[in-house]
Amino acid sequence: MPLTQIHHHAAHTDRVAPADTLRIVLAGNPNVGKSVFFGYLTGLYVDVSNYPGTTVEISRGHMGEAQLLDTPGIYGVSSFNDEERVARDIVLEADVILNVVDAVHLERDLFLTQQLIDMGKPMVVALNFMDEVSQGGLQIDVDLLQDLLGVEVIPTTAVTHWGLDQVREALLRARTGRQDHALHSRLHEMLSAVGSQAEALLVLEGDPHVAERHGLTPGTEREALYIARRNRVNDIVQHVVQDLSGKTRFRETLGRAAVNPLTGIPIMALMLYAMYKVIGVWVAGDIVGITEETIMQGYYEPWVRKVVSAGIQPDSAVGQILIGEFGLLTMTVTYLLGLLLPLVVGFYLFLALMEDSGYLPRLATLVDRLMTSIGLNGRAVIPIILGFGCVQLGTITTRLLGTKREKSIATVILNFAIPCSAQIGVIAGMLAAVGGGLVFLYVAVIFLVLAILGTVLDRMIPGESSALLLDLPPMRVPRVENVVRKTVTRAFFFMKEAYPWFFLGSFIVAVLQVSGGLAVWQRLLRPLTEGWLQIPKEAATAFVMGMVRRDFGAAGLTDLAMSPLQVVVSLIVITLFVPCIASLMILFKERGSREALLIWGGSWVAAFLVGGVVAQLLM
Amino acid sequence: MCLSDIRKGQRVHVFTIEDEAVRTHLIRFGICEGSPLECMEKIPFGPFVVKHNRQEIAIGREIAKKIVVQGGGVPCR
Predict the structure, then answer these.
(1) Given this model, what pLDDT does residue A248 score?
(2) Do residues A8 and A111 both lie within one domain?
C-alpha cells in the first residue's frame, strides 16, 4: 500500500536520495492546500494539515524522475519551533521549490515567498484558492505579480485540480527570482564562508543553528531584514491586488459569531452536543454494537478459538495467552477493531470537519482563557477533545503543543481526569441509575480535580507557557473528499502506531493472569477498597481490570451491589485511576520513563485519595 | 495604550511591539509598526481577535499587553 511506503521513508533521514535526483520541495504557510498539490503531483495521498502544526512528519513521493517532499506549514524559514527547523533543513537541500500561496492572503503569504526568493532557490509560485479571489471581490494582476517576483506564478484551485498540470510543467522551467540588490551583494560576500546563498541568508538573519554549522556568529540584523522584506511585500501587494467589494459576507459573519462568547458558547455547545449524539450515542452504541458484539465476538472470536484450539490446548499457558480471557487473538483484536477503530474514526471525522471548516482555530480562541488558567493555551483544546475519544490519541496529539511544559501539563490532565469514550458509555449508564444530585457530585469532583491539578502543575512546572497567536483562516465549507481522506489517513496512521502497544499491554496482563500475578494484586488492593473507600472488596477486581481496559474497569463495577453513594465513589476512583496499559506504553514513548511512572503512580494516589476523602466525608 | 486596552470595533495603528519574538512573528503575519488593526472581538479576560486587511488573527492577552498602539487617524510612521 503506497501510504505505508511514504510513511516508512519519512521515518528515515532526509539525505537518502541519490545525489543526482532532483529534489523538489513544497513550501507554504499553513492552510494553503499544499498537501493537495502533493497528492496530485505524486499520485499518493498524505495527511492534509489545516491546523498550524499538525504535519510534523514529512511526506515524500516521486514526480517522474524527481523526488517531491512536503514540509510543515510555516510562515517563514527560521528556527522558532520544531516544524520550522524541519522545514528549514528540507528547504536548504531543495533543488527546486514549489511555493503554494493563498491568493486571498497574499500579504501574509508573500513574506515566505520573498524569503525563499532571497535564498536564491529556483522556484515556482502556485497562486491557490483563485476561486475565492473572484468570489471575495478581489482582483489579482498575475502578470504583474510574476514580473515583480521574477518567478513564474501559476493561478490554481487545487481542490478542483484546476491549474495543477500547468504547475507540473512550470516546475521544469523554475528560475530564481528578483532580490533586493543590496541584500544580494551582502549575501555574495558571505558565499565563500558558507557555500550557499540560502545558508548565507539564514546566518545573516541570525539563525543560530545554521550559523553554528559553519562556525559563524549569527547575524544581528534579522529585524531590519524582516522589516525591509515586509515593506517590499506590502508594496508588491499594493500593486497587484485590487479590492472591489467592501461588504461583509455570510461566512465572515459566521466566523465572528464563532469567537464572540455570546454566540460562540452556544455554537460550541451545539457542536459538542452533535459530537455526543454522533460519537457517544450512534458510534459508541449502534456501530460498536455491530462491530464489537455481532462481528468480532459473534463471528471472529469463536472462529479464532476454533482454529487455535486445533493445535494448542486452550487451557495451557500459551492457549490462555492467545485465546483466553485477555487473549492476544481474542480480546486484543476485538478491542482494536471492534471498539477502538470506530471511535477513532468518529473523532478524527469531527476533527477534520472542524479543521477544514476553519472552526477549530476559533474554538481554540474561545477557550483560550479557560486553558491559560491551567498553564495551557487555546490550542490544547485539540488533544483534550481527542482524549475524550481515546487517551492514547490525545497523548499522541500533545505533540502539536508549543513547549515541553505544555506537553507535560496536557498529558497529565489527559491521563488523570479525562475519561475516554470507551469508559464514558459505562459511566454514563451507571450515573443515570443513581440520579440527580449524585451525578452533580461526580461531575463536580472530577472538574475540581482537573482544576486543582492544572493550577498546581502550572505553578510547579518551571518555565512559561506560550501565549496564543493564531491565524484564523476564513470559514469554508469542508470538501467531503478531503475530510474523508484526512480521516482515513489519520485513523490508519494512529492504528498503525497504537496497535503494537495494545498487543504488548495485553501480553503483560495475560502473563500476569496465567502466572497468578493478577490475583495477588487483587488481594493486595482489597483493604484499600473495603476500609478506605468503603465499597465492596470485589471492586478491587474492577480496578485491576481498569488497568487493562478502562471500560472493563467501569463495567466491572456494574454488577456489584452498591448504594448510590458507593457507586459515585467507585466511579470517581475508576475515572481518576491509571490509564489503560496501552496508554501507559504510549506515555513511556512520548514523555519518557520518569514522567510516565510519575503520572502512572500519581494517578493511583489521586484516585484513591480523592475517592477516599469523598467516602470518608459522606458515608 | 496597549492593544489589550482597546475596545471592540476600535481601529488603531501599531506603535511599537515590545517583545522581540512577538515582533518577529507578527511581521511574518503582516503586522509591524505602523500597521492598521481593527479589533473584531475581545473575549472577556481572554484573547483579542484583530483584523489586518483581510486577515484575522487571535492574539493572546499576554501578547496583546506587549503591543503598543495609537488610536485611529494617521499611521505613526
Answers:
(1) 62
(2) yes
User: Closest chain A residue to B57 measured between Cα atoms?
Assistant: A471
Closest CA to A267 of A348, A354, A382: A354
| Strands (E) located in A80-172 | 96-102, 123-128, 138-140, 152-155
Where in the sequence is the domain holding A269, given as residue range(s)? 261-618
Assign domain B3-71 to its CATH superfamily: Ferrous iron transport protein A (FeoA) (2.30.30.90)
Cα(A302)–Cα(A430) distance, integer angstroms: 30
Of B55, B30, B54, B45, the residue nearest A261 (C-alpha): B45
**Region for A232 from its dihedrals, namely left if φ exceeds 0, alpha if ψ lies in -120 to 50, beta otherwise:** alpha
For residue A469, give the nearest of B53, B56, B60 by CB distance: B60
Eight-state DSSP code of residue A464? -
Residue A512 lies in a domain: yes
| A468/chain B closest Cα distance in angstroms | 4
A554 within domain boundaries: yes
Which residue in B4, B16, B28 has the most chain A C-beta atoms within 10 A of its own C-beta, making it the best mutation to test that interface? B28
Residue B6 gets the label, from left (phi > 0), alpha (psi -120 to 50) or beta, of beta
What CATH number is associated with residue A32? 3.40.50.300
Please indicate, yes or no, if residue A256 is contained in any of the structural domains.
Answer: no
Is the minimum CB–CB distance between A465 and chain B shorter than 8 Å? Answer: no
**pLDDT tens digits, residue range A206-241?**
888 888 888 888 888 888 899 899 989 989 999 999
CA distance A615 to A531: 10
Taking the Cβ of residue A471 and every Cβ of chain B, the question of whether any pair is shorter than 8 Å is answered with yes
- Same domain (yes/no): A189, A284: no
Beta partners for residue A154, in sequence order: A126
Does the pLDDT value for residue A504 go beyond 60?
yes
Those residues of chain B whose CB sits closer than 8 Å to some CB in chain A are 20-30, 32, 40-41, 43-47, 49, 53-63
Query: Chain A partners of B30 at a C-beta cutoff of 8 Å?
Result: 107-108, 111, 230, 233-234
Same domain membership, residue A535 and residue A502? yes
- Chain A residues whose CB is inside 8 A of the B20 CB are 223
Residues A330 and A298 grouped into a single domain: yes
How many angstroms away from the CA of B18 is the closest CA of chain A?
13
Answer whether B30 sits within 8 Å of A108, measured CB to CB: yes
- Smallest Cβ distance to A104: which of B25, B43, B54? B54
Q: Specify the pLDDT at position B74.
A: 43
Looking at A214, A243, A272, the residue that finishes a domain is: A243
Same domain, A107 and A230: yes
Per-residue confidence (pLDDT) for residue A222, from 0 to 100:
87
Asked if residue A279 and residue A226 are part of one domain, the reply reads no
Chain A residues touching B56 at Cβ < 8 A: 255, 471-472
